[in-house]
């Protein structure tokens, strides 16, 4: 017996089962009755067993083997139809699951609204979010373990840099806001008031720390960083307690400083604006449509950030 009977023979057999006679099956398939009879005979030879009991003047009767074959054939054809639907969807750049790497503040402040919009539009693809930093995410994009990486870049020379191994799409830039703790009755805090205060930032070689020192150097000041952490929520906690001054991405502030226990530090006119670039990294080539839609929605979300 062949590993799998001829699909054309199986289709004829299933038509006979569903229509109850070879004549009706032949009419439905556009065959002459003798062709249907030949198909059934050929199928039985391939299988080495009788699947239909054929008696003149009597209805067709399925043998035990025939009943099992009919059930298996229906399962096969149903799976084939589902496969064809999936293949057509893939051809139209539709996917079942999208694996997206992202940094924590994007997961908590940018992506919830974006994913809710996608869901409301009826997208059926499951989006799997993975909290990952850029140095871990880039190899996963390259290997195919991750379909999209949402990343930030504080300085132009920092990764991700252009490469034939991935495609970089700029989503826009996110303002960085210098903030301090709020105290009732205190006048607005200016940069000069912060020079003797303690500052909070990332570790010595982190991109945000290097950006801070580069910016401070352009202004001729030297902030005293005594609290080091990569956790932005820990930074906010220290700032709210009025223990430190620090640069916080605008998305975490949500455009609402009043009543949040923090206030914006007034900068001198010569102070250059501080921003970090937000990027989408994917593999080269044609991307699934949902990636392009996700990129567009993230770009719009960044544009709506207010400080």
Q: Which features does this protein show?
A:
two-stranded antiparallel ribbon; 11 strands; 307 residues; D-Maltodextrin-Binding Protein, domain 2; rod-shaped; alpha/beta; 2 domains; Arc Repressor Mutant, subunit A; 9-stranded mixed β-sheet
Number of strands: 11
How does CATH name the architecture of the largest domain?
Answer: 3-Layer(aba) Sandwich
CATH topology of the largest domain: D-Maltodextrin-Binding Protein, domain 2
Mind telling me the C-alpha Rg?
33 Å
Largest sheet: 9 strands, mixed
Q: Helix fraction?
A: 40-55%
Category by helix and strand content = alpha/beta
Unreliably modeled segments: none
What global shape is seen?
rod-shaped
Domain module count: 2
Q: What's the mean pLDDT score? A: 87
Strand content: 15-25%
What's the number of helices? Answer: 11
Give me the strand/helix succession: HHHEEHEHHEHEEEHEHEHEEH
What is the CATH class designation of the largest domain?
Alpha Beta
End-to-end Cα distance: 73 Å
């Amino acid at each position: 017996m062949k590993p799998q009977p001829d699909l054309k023979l199986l289709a004829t057999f299933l038509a006979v089962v569903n229509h109850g006679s070879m004549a009706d099956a032949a009419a439905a398939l556009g065959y002459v009755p003798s062709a249907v009879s030949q198909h059934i005979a050929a199928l039985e030879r391939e299988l080495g067993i009788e699947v239909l009991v054929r008696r003149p003047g009597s209805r067709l009767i399925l043998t035990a083997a025939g009943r099992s074959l009919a059930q298996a054939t229906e399962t096969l054809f149903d799976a084939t139809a589902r496969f064809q639907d999936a293949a057509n969807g893939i051809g139209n750049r539709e996917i079942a699951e999208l694996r997206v790497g992202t940094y924590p503040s994007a997961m908590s402040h940018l992506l919830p609204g974006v994913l809710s919009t996608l869901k409301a539009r009826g997208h059926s693809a499951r989006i799997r979010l993975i909290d990952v930093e850029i140095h871990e995410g880039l190899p996963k994009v390259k290997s195919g373990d991750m379909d999209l990486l949402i990343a930030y870049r504080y300085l132009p020379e920092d990764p991700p840099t252009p490469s034939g191994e991935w495609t970089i799409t700029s989503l826009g830039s996110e303002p960085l806001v210098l903030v301090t703790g709020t105290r009732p009755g205190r006048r607005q805090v200016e940069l000069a008031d912060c020079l003797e205060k303690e500052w909070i930032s990332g570790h010595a070689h982190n991109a945000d720390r290097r950006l801070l020192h580069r910016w401070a150097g352009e202004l001729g000041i030297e902030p005293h960083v005594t609290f080091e952490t990569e956790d932005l929520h820990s930074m906010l906690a220290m700032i709210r307690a009025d223990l430190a001054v620090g640069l916080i991405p605008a998305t975490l502030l949500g455009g609402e400083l009043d009543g949040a226990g923090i206030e914006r530090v007034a900068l001198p006119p010569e102070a250059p604006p501080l921003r970090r670039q937000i990027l989408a990294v994917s593999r080269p080539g044609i991307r699934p449509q949902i990636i392009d839609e996700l990129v567009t929605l993230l770009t719009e979300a960044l544009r709506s950030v207010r400080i």
